[in-house]
Amino acid sequence: MRGFNFFLVNAFLFFLSQELISDIMVINMEGGIGPSKTYYLKNSLQECKENKYKALIIKLNTPGGLLDATREMTGIIMSSAVPVIVYVSPIGARAGSAGVFITMSGHVAAMAPGTNIGAAHPVGLGGDADSSVMGQKVENDAAAYARSIADKRGRNLVWAESAVRQSVSVTENEALNENIIDIIANNINDLVNQCNGKVVIVGDKEIKLDFRQEILIIREMNWKERFLDVISNPNIAYILIMIGLYGLFFELKSPGSIFPGAIGITSLLIAAYSLQMMPVNYIGLSFIILGFLLFVLEIFVVSYGFLSIGGVVSLILGSIMLIDSPLDFMRVSMELIITFSVLSLAFAGLIIYLGIKAQKVNKSTGQYKIIGLEGIAKTDLGANYLGKVLVNGELWQASTDEEIKKGEQIIVEQINSMVLKVRKNIKLSI
Question: How many other C-beta atoms lie within 10 A of the C-beta of residue 178?
């Protein structure tokens, strides 16, 4: 009996210890905020819910991002059934623009020493504040959304609006003093210790965070999330577009090659999916398509490369205009545009060179290739009537200025309107 009681006591202590241990997931949210980051967050929270983790910590370091993706991400955090702790980290990190909304939306907002938050004003395509009516509407909408988040989380509404309207930015100490964040933590362990015992509102319930024996689960992006993150890079999308267009061009130029066409179509399909996650300027995309069509026309129209030059110009203009974003990380790199432009110019120059060279070469293909070939007379031929000759395995009508008997060897001198002019091949005649 005593042994059984001892077993029950140990089982109870083991169960109690398991309840005290809390798994906390940690994810790294670094770089521009876009659809791929939203997908990463959504999957992480779903995994937290399925495994009954106590909380999700987002290590945030971002210069900003797309407004639609930001709204979706903050909506996911605000409605999460798992407490979300947003931690601007490491030292030197920032929560700029979109980062302001994400940080304030967390159930707990924290920053590391030497970090800053703010500058959330919507910007125009040139990177400056948009003073148009539409720009004012976007600004008012963003300011109202920032106030809404701050009000929901009990944070500084006035500062939240000023961060949008005046692009105000503050340090971690100023943020703590002005009730923008809840905690300044030196590292993750310090953050967890400070969060222990803190009461947060999750949904419509108050929850006391219990992190006494925490186990931190670091969750990296899986292959699908990483793939989406890679192709959501405008530079990668642009490279895929160029590979796709050139692949199709070489397939059309040499039908049946298969490999260039397969690579081209695959690249364009991936690029199309990638562009769905970006603010695409369709005029720029149209210029790129026009450039491709001009290259294709060069195959069928002899323009000595001038169509190709027009194609290069269209490609350059389209490349510059392709992505509508003032943010550097959401634009195609100018170095990449210059590289492909130089390659395209070199390609156009090669086409011009080959076109000019072809005009200087004697016609030696098609029907002209038969001139000089030897054959055999299949009928009698004379100066006043046509006959038949067999040349290179083909039966042709033929004329001659001399008498040629059936079976004699001939040689082709000219071709005119599919009629050969031949003479007797004396060396081979019998």
Answer: 14
211 and 253 share one domain: no
Do 83 and 188 lie in one domain? The reply is yes
CB atoms within 10 A of CB 200: 19
Q: Is the pLDDT of residue 56 over 90?
A: yes
Is there a single domain that holds both residue 129 and residue 175?
Answer: yes
Domain containing 386 equals 366-428
Strand positions, DSSP E, 152-292: 169-171, 183-184, 199-202, 205-208, 213-218
Give per-residue pLDDT as tens, 357-375.
Answer: 655 554 544 556 778 888 9
Q: From residue 332, how far is each of 63, 109, 324 by CA, in Å?
A: 17, 33, 10
| pLDDT digit string, tens, across residues 198-245 | 999 998 889 999 887 778 999 999 999 999 888 888 899 999 999 998
β partners of residue 86: 58, 109
**Domain membership flag for residue 227:** no
Q: What is the CA radius of gyration of the chain?
A: 37
Q: Give the chain's domain count.
A: 3
Same domain as 74, residue 8:
yes
Can you tell me the distance from the alpha carbon of 379 to that of 387, in angstroms, rounded to the nearest whole number? 6
Q: What is the pairing mode between strands 94-96 and 108-111? A: unpaired
To the nearest 10 degrees (0 to 180), the angle between helices 306-321 and 334-360 is 170
